[in-house]
Predict the structure.
Amino acid sequence: MTTSTALPVHPIPALSGNNAPVSQEDVFEEMEVIGQVPTDLNGLYVRNGPNAFYPPEWRYHAYDGDGMLHAVRFRQGLVSYRNRWIETRALKEEKAAGRALWQGLKEPQRTDRPDEPLKNTSNTDVKYHAGRLISMWYRSGLPYALDPETLQTIGPADFDGAIARLSAHSRPDEHTGELIFFDYDVKPPYMTYGVIGPDRQLKHKIEIPLDGPSLPHDMAVTEHYTILHDFPLKPDPEALAAGRYKVRFFGEQMTRFAVVPRHGKPEDIRWFTAKPAYLLHVVNAWEEGDEVVMVGTPYRVHTGPDGKPDAQRLETTIRLRQRDFMLYEWRFNLKTGETTERVIDDVLNTEFPVINSAYQGRKNHFSYHVVFPPGGNENPRFPGLVKYDLRTGGYVAFSEGPRHFYNEPGFAPRDNPQSEDDGYLVTLVWNAVDERSEIQVFDAKGARLAEGPVARILLPRRVPNGFHATFVSQQNLDRWGQP
Ligand SMILES: [Fe+2]
């Protein structure tokens, strides 16, 4: 049965309610289920997120907490849950000292640790590569490898010393077994790009020539190309020179995309320009005739009274972590060098896009997102999920109402799937009405998302709201075996 304990109340919203960290590592195997867990749903859903180990005594930012993984294992209709901190180098040092040694984004960085002035919490994304979970940090740092069954940290994923840093969102290609990564920094080289092989050895690495520091959050891969991002939202060079970090949107500059063959050299890069924009997350990319197509959920760029992009509004939206997104497509013509772009849908406001990972880099039709209320709403409401048809912008949506908070889902292919959407959506949900966390499973096929979850598994302890998730199918787990 579920138990409910008083929700933490803290003056800092990022440490209050279901944003507050949990203090235990648990395994739950027998949980109450409403509905029925499908027996052809097999594999692992795992989600990363911030969960401070030591109670923060600084001006805490929502991104500061130590990375913690929450994993839900599906086996023939049985479900188990476990959570574990990612034992990063920094967390181990802190545990040895018995106290926090780093502060957060809102405080000065450590000057005695040029190797890690800001704590690499590895709290942002998690992917599966060659038998191991790989946790990553959005500011770029050493990634960590973890056992997918036990969530035990194996250690830094430096790939035999070849990698000192990579950024969320580096992307595994489950067709080739490669891990395609990028790294960015405020000092040269401002961006690097590379590929790790299925043998966990560095296969390829190049520098991407940029004029200065940029702020890419994601990348896109097709079967043969990688698309790297250089948006006109950048660390302010004047502030950087003065030792400060401030993000500015240079609305008069174009967006630049580097399209490079997966194992290409710097001279193979094709640069494409597009309207000034800022994108956190890519939905997917693929090749179509002479074109490389990329779909994502960029921020809506509003225009000011002068008809130019309203830079201040976008900066504020981003700084306050408000949500104001649309579904958008860029097409890069490799023959003409031209970019064409279009809005696929700007009616719904959605983010945290995921797809059936077997279709990454291949033309696909469906993506699944968390839906928000319209506009740059300050109230952090994540009330439901959406399934988009990328061809038409049509959608099927499910909302549980304003008192439910949905996390990034994972697409779980049904055993022996017959089509792209033949599977389930799995996610963690904070149910503030009953003050509990739930694992919810939706049928993803056709329009069935609208019918609501086919199974709700009630967790005996809350799971704090978090960042990115992945689903690893049983087939993929079996392919690689033990880490
Ligand atoms: Fe992200």
In short: The helical segments are 89-97, 237-241, 311-319, 474-480. The pocket of fe (ii) ion is lined by residues 124, 138, 168-169, 217, 280-281, 468 (CB under 6 Å).
